[in-house]
Amino acid sequence: MSPRTVRRVAGGVGRRFPLRPFRLLFPYGLSRSLFRVWLRAIRSQPDERKAMRELLEVYADAYYAMDRGAIDYDGGVHVKHRLTRYHDFFVENVEPGERILDIGCGKGELAFDVAERAGATVVAIDRARWALDFARANFSHQRVTYVESDALAYRDAAPFDAAILSNVLEHVGPRVELLRSLRRETRVERLLIRVPAIDRDWVVPLREELGLDHFSDPEHEVEYTPDLLGAELAQAGWTMGEPRLSWGEIWVVATPASSL
Question: What are the structural domains of the chain?
């Protein structure tokens, strides 16, 4: 069973059967002590490769739980929005009055900020109806329009000054097709991109060496180096600006190349 399937099953169980009452069966102090003993037991087995694989699997499970907890902690919005301040990159690269396409807008946190802080008009699209429902309920704005649509299928009669792709490209299979479509069909003047860096941590190549999924999200199609991102952009007719490396991510502005 894949990690993605395991997580979906576990999440479904948690939604159907509230786990909060069971906390009394797992007192934190005792559970943590037993957990640490268990980790040492894993390490002590003679097959070091097997031990390392199992430790990395537990690490991934704990990180996933922490990631979900980080959303609960800030009332439905992941704390990374607040702590890493990555919204600033997008706000700083948008001018007042510009028309912006936010692709894969999710729950609307960034679309709202770009409209509110940069003074732009934003069309924010996503395929996930539940995310758009959250956005409309929590991040509505007079200059933001939320649209349920696939990025490749979306068309608009008016051009856009910029398109935001914030942690989106890595989820897309036909990335070059999407990037080319944004220039030819949607008539976007520049791209504001944020993607995960593949060399963000030493754990990444170790997981790959041990035959484990090594992307930060099992739903990712790719994770990037600046060279790989630049190559995909060039293939689609874009020129990548100077990449900014921050928080294990690559942030970059891309403009149309002289010719396709």
Answer: 21-73 (no CATH), 84-256 (3.40.50.150)
Nearest by Cα to 163 from 247, 93, 259, 246: 93
The residue whose two tokens read 């894993």 is: 42
| pLDDT score of 68 more than 80 | yes
- How many Å separate Cα 74 from the centre of its chain? 17
The predicted model scores a pTM of: 0.85
List pLDDT tens digits, range 247-260.
999 999 999 987 54
**Which residue's entry shows tokens 């936010």?**
102
Query: What confidence score (pLDDT) does residue 19 get?
Result: 67
What is the torsional sign of CA 170, 67, 76, 89?
Answer: negative
In percent, how much of the chain has pLDDT > 70?
A: 90
Bridging pattern class, strands 249-256 and 238-240: antiparallel
Q: How far is CA 34 from CA 21, 26, 73, 90, in A?
A: 20, 10, 26, 45
Which amino acid would we find at residue 212? L
